[in-house]
C-alpha cells in the first residue's frame, strides 16, 4: 500500500479532527493529500510526534487526535508507547507507517527491516487497541474502528517506500497559529 493512498482514505473519514504528522514523508504526503488548518506538520523533531499527540489528546479530550508517525521516528521514542498506555487517552489514534527505512535521510534500513514488529511492542506496552494493516481495505477498516471506538489506538500500516513530491512552504509559525485556530474551532 502507498502511504499517500492511506492518508487520502483517512482524510475522507475525518471532519475537523486534528492530524499531527512527523517530519519527512508523512508530512509531505499529508500536505499533498489535503492541506487543512487542522493539520500540524512537524519538522526537525524526529521521534516527538507521538508525545505531542499524547499531550494534545490529554489537553483536549473532546477531540479525536490522529498522529501520523513513521517506524524510524517511533523507534527513537519507544518510551512514548508506555506513557500512552499508562495515560490511556481514549481519544488518541496513533498510526505508524512502516516502510522499513529512514526514508528522509537516505533509505537506511530501520530495525523493522530486520523483523522487529512495532505492533507487538505496542501490545507489550499495554495498549488496548492494536491493529495491523498491509492493504487499503484493512487500513480503512482499522482507521474507521479507531475513529469510532475508544482507544488509545495503535495502527501499524505497512507501506511501500516513496514520498509525494509536494513542496511545502516552510512557515512553521504560520502553521502553528493556523493549527491552534483550527482546533479551537473544532468541536468542544
Helix fraction bin: 40-55%
Strand percentage, roughly?
15-25%
Question: Can you summarize the main beta sheet?
Answer: 6 strands, parallel
Which CATH architecture? 3-Layer(aba) Sandwich
String of helices and strands: HEHEHEHHEEEHEHEH
SS class: alpha/beta
Low-confidence stretches: none
Number of E strands = 8
Can you tell me the overall shape? globular
Distance between the termini: 34 Å
Overall number of domains: 1
- Please report the number of helical segments: 8
CATH H level, superfamily name: Thiamin diphosphate (ThDP)-binding fold, Pyr/PP domains
CATH topology: Rossmann fold
**Mind telling me the CATH class?**
Alpha Beta
Rg (C-alpha, Å)? 15 Å
Features:
188 residues, alpha/beta, Rossmann fold, 6-stranded parallel sheet, two-stranded antiparallel ribbon, 8 strands, 43% helix, 18% strand, globular
Question: Could you describe the 3D structure shown?
Answer:
With 188 residues, the protein is of the alpha/beta class. It has a single domain, classed as Rossmann fold (3-Layer(aba) Sandwich), CATH 3.40.50. Helix content is 43%, strand content 18%. It has helices at residues 3-13, 25-33, 49-59, 71-75, 79-87, 118-125, 136-148, 172-185, and strands at 19-21, 39-41, 65-70, 92-98, 101-102, 108-109, 129-133, 153-158. The strands form two sheets. A six-stranded parallel β-sheet has the order 2-1-3-4-8-7, sandwiched between helices. Helix 1 (3-13) packs parallel to helix 7 (136-148) and helix 3 packs parallel to helix 5. The radius of gyration is 15 Å and the shape is globular. The N and C termini lie far apart (34 Å). The model has no long low-confidence stretch (mean pLDDT 94).
Amino acid at each position: 500500500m502507498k502511504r499517500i493512498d492511506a492518508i487520502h482514505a483517512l482524510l475522507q473519514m475525518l471532519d475537523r479532527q486534528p492530524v499531527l504528522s512527523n517530519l519527512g514523508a508523512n508530512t509531505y504526503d499529508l500536505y499533498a493529500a489535503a492541506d487543512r488548518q487542522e493539520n500540524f506538520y512537524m519538522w526537525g523533531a524526529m521521534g516527538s510526534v507521538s508525545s505531542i499527540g499524547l499531550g494534545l489528546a490529554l489537553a483536549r479530550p473532546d477531540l479525536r487526535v490522529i498522529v501520523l508517525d513513521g517506524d524510524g521516528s517511533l523507534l527513537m521514542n519507544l518510551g512514548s508507547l508506555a506513557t500512552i498506555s499508562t495515560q490511556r487517552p481514549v481519544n488518541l489514534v496513533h498510526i505508524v507507517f512502516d516502510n522499513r527505512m529512514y526514508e528522509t535521510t537516505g533509505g537506511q534500513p530501520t530495525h523493522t527491516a530486520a523483523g522487529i514488529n512495532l505492533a507487538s511492542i505496542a501490545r507489550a506496552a499495554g495498549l488496548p487497541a492494536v491493529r495491523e494493516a498491509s492493504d487499503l481495505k484493512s487500513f480503512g477498516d482499522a482507521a474507521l474502528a479507531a475513529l469510532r471506538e475508544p482507544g488509545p489506538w495503535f495502527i501499524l500500516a505497512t507501506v511501500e517506500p516513496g514520498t509525494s513530491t509536494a513542496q511545502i512552504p516552510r512557515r512553521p509559525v504560520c502553521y502553528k497559529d493556523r493549527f491552534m485556530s483550527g482546533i479551537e474551532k473544532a468541536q468542544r
